[in-house]
Specification:
mainly alpha; 19 helices; globular; single chain
Length: 454
């Protein structure tokens, strides 16, 4: 998108759009069309400039909230599902894994589709299928069918998060994009706070199937809001006309960029550390430490508040003042320290500890994600102007696939120990830090224009 288009929704975007040029010069524009600026006309959103800004933030925040809604509202019900469907905990955790894997694979399809046909059409189709799949989950008679329906739910729900990121890249550049991603965390961060709280309250009046009924209703409301309020942001002149081969070519060029791939893997493994907590915490908090579903929901919400607060500190205080590479490196180190503390407590290095120290370490780990997630996305997406859908798909797929692998590993030793959760979290955090230092190489000198803001 041309630089002038960034001012549609954020007056500061014009002044920061130039920060992309230094990063994008690291790839050959002639050999990498995905990284080449375009001089095409502004997207149709220009005609609705007065209605963008805050409204757009809430809309995109709602779309990025689809994954946490689909997974976190369901978390307090996991122990009940094991009893209701007479299935072991490891099998029930596969309902999380398949949903996450579906969201990962779905992004690889929907992202390039949105580069070819625009953002609105694939998004609305995806939301419609998501609602149908969620209704099927509510009536699943066995754990096997529930796993299958959760896979379909994830495949369809992928449209929401991948297109939301692509829309941001359509409209924003540089520092403005980093700040917008941080603002999105304030909106979408409400989902992991409210979802388990709502799930816990639903379980007071009905069973786990009622959770999916509520999710279906929320999906219908979100689809209606998108239909009415979200305009197209990708101009026809900016869409590629190729088919599947062109999409693969765009992804291949993006993966050939060592730094883009480094940020993609860094974000993916950092997300795996977070998702190990998402998958294991219902059993750790409720089964090992004896907390109620409502107490678990409150603790989960508190952790999400920490993530939101740190995300706002990142966007309002750090972005534009401290290079994002430095902020990201600090966040990864905090995740490693918190994971080490959790592992030591799980192994009994400090004797018998209660829920409070464990919850404190989990709070620190989750809060640090308010730094790592928006900054890895920004530093990766800033390297591409076109093919934002493909780039967003690769970022999301890496995160969700690695997270899907982490999910069953946390339950490999049963429900009576938190050691697997801590081991997976620490391993993922260390790999993320290694990818950041080894592939992104943040110590290398950047062009002066980028160094001022990034």
């Amino acid at each position: 998108m041309p630089e002038g288009g960034a001012s549609i929704s954020n007056p500061t975007a014009n002044s920061t759009a130039k920060t992309d040029s230094a990063e994008e010069s690291t790839t050959n524009p002639a050999a990498n069309p995905a990284a080449r600026p375009t001089a095409s006309a502004a997207p149709p959103l220009r005609a609705t400039a007065g209605r963008t800004g805050l409204l757009l933030t809430f809309l995109l925040g709602g779309l990025t909230a689809v994954p946490p809604l689909a997974m976190d509202m369901y978390l307090p019900a996991l122990p009940e599902v094991t009893r209701s469907l007479h299935a072991p905990a490891a099998t029930v955790q596969l309902t999380l894994t398949t949903c996450l894997a579906g969201m990962a694979l779905g992004q690889l399809v929907v992202g390039p589709m949105s580069d070819r046909w625009g953002r609105r059409r694939p998004l609305l189709i995806g939301l419609a299928v998501y609602v149908v799949a969620t209704v099927l989950c509510a009536f699943a008679p066995s754990v096997g069918l529930l796993v299958a329906f959760r896979l379909l739910q994830g495949l369809a729900g992928a449209a929401a998060i991948v297109i939301a990121r692509a829309v941001v890249r359509d409209l924003y550049d540089g520092v403005a994009m980093a700040r917008f991603f941080s603002n999105l965390m304030l909106i979408s961060g409400l989902a992991p706070i409210m979802a388990p709280l709502i799930g816990g309250q639903i379980l007071r009046v009905t069973d786990w199937r009622g959770v999916f009924v509520v999710l279906a209703v929320l999906g219908v409301l979100l689809a209606a809001l998108v239909w009415v309020k979200l305009p197209e942001t990708l101009a026809p002149a900016d869409r590629h006309g190729g088919g599947f081969g062109a999409a693969l070519g765009s992804m291949r060029r993006l993966l050939a960029d060592r730094v883009f791939t480094g940020y993609m893997l860094t974000g993916g493994f950092a997300f795996a550390s977070l998702f190990a907590y998402v998958a294991a915490s219902p059993f750790v908090v409720q089964e090992i430490y004896g907390a109620s579903p409502q107490t678990f929901s409150l603790l989960f919400g508190l952790n999400s508040i920490g993530l939101m607060i740190v995300g706002q500190i990142n966007g309002k205080v750090l972005v534009g003042r401290v290079r994002l590479d430095r902020v990201l490196g600090f966040g990864l180190c905090v995740v490693v320290v918190a994971a080490v503390a959790l592992l030591l407590m799980s192994l009994g290095a400090f004797g018998e500890v209660g829920l409070v120290p464990v919850a404190a370490a989990l709070f620190v780990l989750m809060s640090a994600m308010g730094i790592t997630m928006p900054n890895t996305q920004t530093l990766a997406l800033v390297r591409t102007r076109q093919a934002a859908g493909a780039a967003s798909a690769l970022l999301g797929t890496a995160s969700f696939l690695v997270g899907a692998i982490a999910s069953p590993l946390v339950g490999i030793a049963g429900e009576d120990t938190a050691v697997p959760m801590a081991v997976v979290q620490l391993t993922a955090a260390l790999v993320a830090l290694a990818c950041f230092t080894g592939l992104c190489r943040p110590w290398q000198a950047r062009a002066s224009a980028e160094g001022e803001d990034f």
